[in-house]
Design a protein that fits this description.
Strand order of the largest sheet: 3-2-1-9-10
Number of strands: 10
């Protein structure tokens, strides 16, 4: 990492605001303990879906942005689906609901029985009014990549053999086996989520920090400073 800079990156939160809040507390204590530095927080995407408190996760992410010198979040495949559903695409809404989107919609206060009675078309028409404008604005600020020092931050990974400039948005948000099964160096150490592992993956060429928080209760962050790496988690 560049001298004087410290980064914390958090893996897939998936609607678990309780774990997000607990991990942020750990990060703030860790950051204070390590002394002065320019501090960055990067959320690796999939803030929403599966857990019950996606709305609260977005609220907390917006608040956390002001607690660090720099803040960024990366659009995950679940946010991509959510934004497509909010834009009125009924086919994307169907996929969104099959992948944990029901819990996200319920977190915005709609009655579960009413939700069950809606047709896809009715829900598509009602959904934009459920989500506050500030949240829709926040969802539009997600990035696909961030590069700091020797590290590349992405949600899912990169396509092996393709330069960063030529990576497709779909791969950055959705790729899995072709990336995690590849053992080559990609020009940067890739820090990613999206693919669940029981423990953080700490390899010379990639760092994976999706530890399946929505089902494992373990939300993980990696800290990076100079040539150091360390992990924080809720378990």
């Amino acid at each position: 990492m560049p001298e004087g800079e410290r980064i914390y990156a958090i893996g897939d939160i998936h609607g678990r605001c309780d774990l997000f809040e607990a991990l942020l507390d750990q990060i703030m204590r860790d950051n204070d303990m390590r002394g002065p530095a320019y501090s960055r927080l990067i959320l690796l995407g999939d803030l929403i879906d599966r857990g019950d408190t996606s709305r609260d996760v977005i609220d907390l992410a917006m608040h956390a942005a002001g607690q660090f010198d720099s803040f960024a979040w990366l659009t995950g495949n679940h946010e991509e689906l959510f934004m497509g559903a909010l834009d009125g695409d009924v086919d994307i809404l169907r996929v969104f609901l099959r992948n944990g989107g029901r819990e996200t919609i319920l977190s915005y206060g709609i009655d579960a029985d009413l939700l069950a009675r809606f047709s896809f078309e009715e829900l598509s028409a009602a959904l934009p009014a459920l989500v506050p404008p500030a949240h829709r604005d926040f969802l539009r600020t997600g990035r696909d990549t961030a590069v700091h020092g020797d590290y590349l931050f992405v949600h899912a990974g990169v396509r092996p053999g393709v330069t960063l400039e030529n990576q497709s948005r779909r791969d950055l948000r959705w790729i899995r086996h072709e990336f995690v099964n590849d053992m080559s160096f990609h020009g940067h150490v890739v820090v990613h989520g999206h693919t669940i592992s029981d423990e953080p993956v700490n390899l010379p060429y990639r760092i994976g920090i999706d530890t399946g928080a929505f089902r494992s209760n373990r939300l993980t962050a990696v800290g990076l400073e100079a040539n150091q790496r360390w992990f924080l988690s809720t378990l």
